[in-house]
Specification:
Two copies of one chain form a homodimer. Chain A is α/β, with parallel strands linked by helices. In chain A, 53% of the residues lie in helices and 11% in strands. Chain A contains 14 helices and seven strands. A seven-stranded parallel beta sheet of chain A has the order 3-2-4-1-5-6-7, with helices on both faces. The longest helix of chain A has 28 residues. Chain A is globular, with a radius of gyration of 21 Å. The interface between A and B is large, with 71 and 72 residues.
């Protein structure tokens, strides 16, 4: 038995079967929610049936993705949104995808602490997901955590993620409403990196609106939108909102824009299009992950690697053999 | 016949079969090299056997990856390297992976023009790869282009790529020597984004060494290296070199470091480890690409999507059904 297999096994005698947690999750019991999310994150095989059941009972929440490069002010904005939503009586859930790089860990930890303060004061549920060593695949386990909060009655559910990297794009693409946060004064370099994300925004927010450079960032976003193609939904024109999370200025306007987009999805029929796209992305993302893991774990790859290193077989032919599409030589 | 299928077909009556191009590529004939790379980029099924043959005849070149965020000065550095290598009598090949975002296209085009001037003056071969609409998959076709230059006798072969995004990481991980270029004055935000790439550097270069901030960037890289884990090859300590591509100052030192790393790979036995890793990455990357394309093109996904949208099946179960690992309900 390998260390990897051992780590997937329940360790305590008092382990509550995942299926027994499901009714508690549906009642909104926080300890059961926290345990189910941990099991999704660890990809316990034992939890698979429970997660499938939870998925079937979910589907009512408005899922809002908030993305932007590190330093854009995402966590501060999310804290402000939690306070405003709680004041309006809403049961808000937050799943934060945490880049656990040793180089950025410190600063981001500080933001998390501020966010938890806001949560504790409001009854919101806030959870960070680990990005490294995530056996279930980052996108898969993050979206399962969203399902859990959804089935437990949270809405809106905010997914907060850095807008760089394929996993992060996969996660945020599973939101109904995507808010892309830009900070004033970030250079064209960062704008270029973010280009792929800017294109999928339903709402643009510019943080730190109290700074004099914020107006220039708004103008530059307007210029980019004039240049580039937007989302496939041409019936919605993404608004650009400058907000100050610190003073709370225009945070209410951002919440109104998020609600307006949700209403638009329902009224225009775009919701059906988006739900199909989300289902498609989730199935393919999970299949790709399961497929990679199978070959990473099994030894079936080793013989092919030897042949490719020895140049008796090329990588494309070896890939087709691995898939069973070509006979082994 | 779909438009996608049509676009993969040879159009001209004078089409030279790819297998007939192979001997010309091996002789180093530039028009044949250019054609083969275009066919790899377009993923012509007709070219698959020829590319497999070329792979078997390649394997002598030293492949050097040069990566860094937009604005770090990669293209200017590559131009300086081409001039220095040509002066030393080496036949250098360059494959540039071009982010074709509408937001960054302009500036990068300017760099390409400068790079081609350097190439034309030296007999080097320089080629940009399209990143959008790349039917063969970016990593796959880029590495096939490297195989083509390798089989044609070019060495070193430089892969120049933006250090962000899974495809780009896959490409640069296929190099024997990875140079990560940082620019002085870029903020911590960008450093955090780059963190994943910084960790895989064999050599750190700091551009624009004539600027006063360059020393601070060198110090910050030294600090990061002290913090984070390096590559698995613990017998090599990545040097940090400040270079000025404009004045040519210390470009020679960078070339010496690149040669020293190549000598280290041979002497330490690390080369075998790296060749295994590269083969493994190329096989899995190609398999993942072929697998995704199959389901993207075929209609086999649609029934699963309907069930997931209707919440009668969860995405993980649908993924296992798609892979044939679970019986359809």
């Amino acid at each position: 038995m390998t260390a990897a297999t051992l780590s997937k096994m329940p360790r305590r005698a008092s382990y509550v079967p995942s299926m027994d947690l499901v009714p508690l999750v549906l009642e909104g019991r926080v300890p059961a929610i926290a345990r189910m999310i941990s099991r999704a994150e660890a990809a316990y095989p034992e939890a698979a049936n429970a997660l499938a059941e939870i998925y079937k009972r979910a589907g009512r929440a408005h899922v809002v993705g908030i993305t932007g490069v590190p330093g854009a002010g995402k966590s501060t904005l999310v804290s402000a949104l939690i306070r405003a939503l709680a004041a309006a009586g809403q049961k808000v859930g937050v799943i934060a995808v945490d880049p656990s790089s040793p180089f950025s860990g410190g600063a981001i930890l500080g933001d998390r602490v501020r966010m938890s303060d806001a949560a504790a004061a409001s009854g919101a549920y806030v959870r960070s997901m680990a990005t490294r060593g995530n056996l279930g695949g980052l996108a898969r386990s993050t979206l399962e955590a969203v399902d859990i909060l959804d089935a437990a009655g949270y809405s809106p559910i905010i997914i907060e993620t850095v807008g760089v990297g394929q996993d992060e794009v996969e996660v945020v693409s599973a939101a109904h409403t995507i808010v892309v946060l830009s900070a004033p004064g970030l250079g064209d370099d960062i704008q270029a990196i973010k280009a792929g994300i800017l294109e999928i925004a339903d709402i643009h927010a510019v943080s730190k609106s109290d700074r004099p450079e914020a107006a220039a960032t708004v103008a530059s976003l307007q210029g980019m939108m004039a240049l580039g193609p937007g989302r496939t939904d041409t019936s919605w024109r993404p608004p650009i909102l400058a907000v100050s999370s610190v003073s709370g200025n225009r945070v209410r306007d951002l919440l109104d824009a998020i609600s307006a987009h949700w209403a638009h999805l329902q009224a225009s029929g775009e919701m059906a299009v988006r739900r199909h796209g989300i289902a498609r992305t989730r199935i393919l993302g999970t299949a790709r992950h399961l497929f990679s893991r199978k070959f990473d774990e099994g030894g079936s790859l080793d013989g092919h690697v030897e042949k490719v290193v020895g140049r008796s077989v090329d990588p494309a032919t070896a890939a087709r053999m691995l898939l069973g599409w070509e006979k082994e030589s």
